[in-house]
Automatic annotation (TrEMBL):
CDD domains: TPP_PYR_DXS_TK_like. This is Transketolase. PANTHER family: PYRUVATE DEHYDROGENASE E1 COMPONENT, TRANSKETOLASE-LIKE PYRIMIDINE-BINDING DOMAIN-CONTAINING PROTEIN. One of its GO terms (molecular function) is magnesium ion binding. Residues 19-185 form the Transketolase-like pyrimidine-binding domain. Pfam families: Transket_pyr. InterPro entries: PDH/Transketolase, THDP-binding, Transketo_C/PFOR_II, Transketolase-like_Pyr-bd.
């Protein structure tokens, strides 16, 4: 019999399909640009056709579509930031971070200017796009650079709040949008929240992994923490809530991306960590998102099997 208790009993109730964060993002953009003369949107074709032309018309001079030129996308954002604007930069994750990595490193980081990078597609949100459109390496890639805040919202409401807050700041922020969503939003104060309490270990569910993680550990005596901001990593909450020093990370991107963060957070404490997420091997079949999840072991059944094997060897 599990001794775990639910601390947020109404956090993930299903009242119908949750809103899509990317649709919310496109709907918000004209309003955000109109509300603040500092804000500019920079696109590389992706997303341009989803914007309402009538709503964009009054702020057309600050909605810039550069076409399929991703290096120029980031360089333009750097120039706008140097000129005192707050650029929102948007495309699929591999086009936003992998292809223009040098520009992200130099035109934003080296120049020490801010921008709000908003990706789409998650790790494989469009399976038919294949490897060119898969974005599971994004957070790990940003970990090689300094000064980035990384948000992984699990609900459209979280994404909107994060975006509005990001526009009030001047630093470098990455908001990772995914077609997946939890049934209800969680807090977005940068700290992990406690979804369940248990004594046999801790499971950290990141962004849209929360609902499936709760389903996966049903009946197991574990604490579940929810993280919608992963950089900076909330070491304090992890340490304060730690029971048994066994930690499972459930991340919607490259497996073990945050394993080193857990090790730093638990420095001086003997512990074990299991990282779950998208594996490094390329799956050379399109399939469906659900099939990719199952192949990487981050569907409900795969998460449950891994947690049980790890905590009960």
């Amino acid at each position: 019999m599990s001794t775990a208790t639910i601390e947020q009993t109404d956090a993930h109730l299903d009242d119908g399909p949750p809103p899509d964060a990317r649709d919310r993002f496109y709907g918000l953009l004209p309003e955000l640009v109109a509300a603040d003369p500092r804000v500019a949107v920079v696109l590389a074709e992706i997303g341009a056709s989803y914007l309402d032309p009538e709503k964009v018309a009054p702020v057309r001079d600050r909605v810039i579509n550069l076409g399929i030129r991703e290096q120029l996308l980031i360089s333009t954002a750097g120039g706008l930031a140097l000129a005192g604007l707050r650029p929102i930069v948007h495309t699929f994750a591999p086009f936003l971070l992998e292809r223009p990595y040098e520009q992200v490193k130099l035109d934003l980081g080296h120049q020490d200017v801010g921008a709000v990078l908003v990706s789409a597609g998650g790790s494989y949100g469009w399976p038919a796009g294949g490897e060119t459109h898969f974005g599971q390496r994004d957070v790990a890639l940003l970990d090689t650079l300094s000064g980035w805040t990384v948000h992984v919202p699990g609900h459209a409401d979280e994404a909107e709040e994060m975006l509005r807050d990001a526009l009030r700041r001047d630093d470098r922020i990455y908001i990772r949008l995914d077609g997946l969503s939890n049934a209800a939003p969680g807090p977005v104060d940068g700290r992990m929240s406690v979804l369940r309490r248990g004594s046999r270990g801790t499971v950290v569910a990141v962004g849209p992994m929360a609902d499936r993680t709760l389903a996966a550990v049903d009946g197991l005596d574990v604490t579940v923490l929810y993280a919608s901001t992963v950089r900076p990593f909330d070491a304090g909450t992890l340490r304060r809530t730690l029971g048994a020093p066994d930690v499972v990370l459930v991340e919607p991107y490259l497996r073990d991306t945050s394993t080193a963060e857990v090790s730093r957070a638990l420095g001086g404490i003997r512990h074990r960590t299991l990282g779950l997420g998208v594996g490094p091997d390329e799956l050379r079949r399109y399939g469906t998102r659900e099939q990719h999840d199952a192949a990487h072991g981050i569907d409900v059944e795969g998460i449950r099997r891994s947690v049980i094997d790890f905590l009960h060897p």
